[in-house]
């Protein structure tokens, strides 16, 4: 088995594991962590394809995705903490009334 195939299989496994975790779990914080796991699977596949094709633009894109992911966590965690403070639960079903 080639290294590229192994890394792509690992990235697919990370994405599927994150997807299953988001679907199965009923805890907002854990769901957020599984979403980040899905994002890491996508980033790993992007790195593999960048290495395979020899494109430098892919490396810049990976860096930008990491920056956006860090900003997402920096914004999502305080919002999640405010929701937990007001709702006293991490169950996403308790916040169904927040839909616009």
Short structural description:
With 100 residues, this protein is mainly alpha-helical. It has helices at residues 3-24, 28-53, 56-87.
What does this structure look like?
The protein has 100 residues and is mainly alpha-helical. It contains three helices and no strands. Helix 1 (3-24) runs antiparallel to helix 2 and helix 2 packs antiparallel against helix 3. The longest helix is centred in the C-terminal third of the chain and has 32 residues, at 56-87. It starts with a helix and ends in a 13-residue tail after the last helix.
State the total count of DSSP E strands.
0
What's the N-to-C terminus distance?
49 Å
For the biggest sheet, the summary is:
none
Element order: H for helix, E for strand: HHH
**Helical content band:** over 70%
Question: Could you outline the blueprint of secondary structure elements for this entry?
Answer:
Elements: H1 3-24, H2 28-53, H3 56-87
Descriptive key words:
100 residues, mainly alpha, elongated
